[in-house]
Please model this.
Amino acid sequence: MTTSSRFPAPPAAELRAVTKRYGEVVALDRVDLALEPGEVTALLGPNGAGKTTCVKLLLGLTRPDAGRAEVFGGDPDGTAQRVRVGAMMQISKVPETLKVREHLELFASYYPRPLPRAEAIAAAGLEGLEGRPFGKLSGGQKQRLMFALAMVGDPDLLFLDEPTVGLDVEARRGFWEQVRRRVEQEGRTVLLTSHYLEEADALADRVVVIHRGQVVADGSPAEIKSRAAARRIRCTTRLDAGEVAGLPGVSRARRDRRSLEIVAASAETVVRELLARDPGLTDLEVTGAGLEEAFLDLTRDHDDHPAAAAEKGAA
Amino acid sequence: MTSATLNPAVAAPPRPARRSLRRIYRLEAWYELVKVLRMPAFAIPTIAFPVMFYLLFGVSFGRSFPAGPVTMATYLLGTYGAFGVIGAALFGFGVGVAVERGQGWTLLKRASPMPAGAYFAAKLAMATVFGSAVVASLFLLGRFAAGVELPSATWAALGGVLIAGALPFCAFGLALGYLAGPNSAPAVVNLIYLPMGFLSGLWIPINVLPGPMKTIALGLPAYHYAQLALKTFGADLGQPAWIHLTYLAVFTALSLAVARWAYRRDEGRTYG
Model:
């Protein structure tokens, strides 16, 4: 155990300074991402942030324009790597006329040491549906088959790309339960992409927020949640942005034409303090920053004030 | 290696098992066939159209009209056989690939450790099985309903040529499958398949077609394929076989090159 801390295990998969362009669009801009063995990492971000591109690079489905993608120390598209990897991707269909059992038998044949079929069926909660063709499954059952296909090779590394898109709340919770049971007990390395913070919170040890092709935050789900729970306060005031930024609980303040925009962990204490300091304050507006907002916020910091972003990381 | 099997307690290799490539290819081909057999919209027309055409033109008119040295019933056995095999290859392979690209199925396959060849070999096997089913149906009709009589060596040669013809058209189907969008693929394939079949003399004997059309036929792969089939009973136009074979070999190579290029192009897209 002591040796493992002195010589930390190499990452199970890694993007090193990866840039990826699709024509004129820069999908990823010098992204570094290392998946630690046995850890569930959630890649969180709005649509088009570059999450799926990260997954495709690590699955060897596309190549970086600059930088390097590595899985288990080798090329992601090598067979030695691929037999240790399972993937659930954003695809609409697998052949509809083949039955659950048949799909699993075929996928299992690709791997040297697949799960027994009954175990794969149980892992995905598909008991009793073995003989049903894919086309006759419900949306939630289809997702569970996709999960079973990802799991059937007993992979060390699992990619779950937006696994619950299109599922209702109940199906989504059920799915998380399945994933957690399989993943937590067995120490698999997982990369999950999602735009639901709730999903990342339910499944991940670590959350990496990506926006416009750049990593803008990296921390525990609790850290990212508190970040996303921030409030945005706007008001017209004579107070100086620098002064307000120094108030307790304020993570950022800046002047935007006439009004002042403040991001704070808790609105109440800050508003009380603002009113005490400037009784002439008007146009007070408090909104939840929300996840999307928090992302945009982080990106803006990233673009405009690298120092401010670094400071926030410390707080 | 052997020590591990002799003394598992010492070696205890975590991954002793190996996957069997033969099993992967076999299962892939089997399930490709099962999948398609359960899709009546593909399975029925692929076999029924050539059979129906043969019943209409081969069996009903076949005995009375001569087509060169043979009866029309014999002649159409060669050309509708070719028509059926081409259909199975273009629709099974071409439309199949395009549709599965659209669904994302090929993307999941490519991310898996499946050897890429297994997917294509399975589709080739499926198209060959369907092509053979068409040829067998036509042979039975020809022999027993239209009274076609050929030496058994000729039956064998005709069957062999017809089934081997699946290869160039599977290659062509593969290229179309990667070039065409999933929704437009059936229309694109029909727009190529039907005119090409007509102009190559698959429906009406080539020497009945007007002069300019005959010239066009020389540039079409289906013409060269059908000529090879007709040559087995001496009803071709008399060009040497090597011309047809060379044309089809070049056509196959070009199709595979285009398919390869289009496959690569797919990598940069959202689906593929």
